[in-house]
Write a structure and sequence with these properties.
Distance between the termini: 40 Å
Shape: globular
Number of helices: 0
Order of helices and strands: EEEEEEEEEEE
Length: 125
């Protein structure tokens, strides 16, 4: 059974940092494209970034590039999202998702077959 369990969300002031974690199980993590996506209040799903743990190729949305870092821990089947210089517009529920990259071409897709329950990040003073 595929399971994705996020943690690490919370309330942070603008300019602050957080690290989100995703514990993955039930599939071969190293050979699976993984993504972080988010949903802000009243808005649709927004892609944050994707990685392919096998080669660590990682891609980011322009809105987070230079501030967010996605890193896989292949030994422990964990996916991390380090977020720095957080802004109010980063307020959202963040979800870890299986998929989001075509591993043959490393092209981004909008196809996710599993995702977790999410962890809420609130950026506010």
């Amino acid at each position: 059974e595929v399971q994705l369990v996020e943690s690490g969300g919370g309330l942070v002031q603008p300019g602050g940092s957080l690290r989100l974690s995703c514990a993955a199980s039930g599939f071969t993590f190293i050979s699976t494209a993984m993504s972080w996506i988010r949903q802000a209040p009243g808005k649709g799903i927004e892609w944050v970034g994707s990685t392919y743990p096998y080669n660590s190729n990682t891609y980011y949305a322009d809105s987070v590039k230079g501030r967010f870092t996605i890193s896989p821990d292949n030994a422990n089947n964990m996916l991390y999202l380090e977020m720095h210089n957080l802004k109010s517009e980063d307020t959202a529920v963040y979800l870890c998702a299986k998929g989001g990259l075509d591993i043959a071409t490393m092209g981004r897709t909008n196809k996710y077959d599993y995702w977790g329950q999410g962890t809420r990040v609130t950026v506010s003073s």
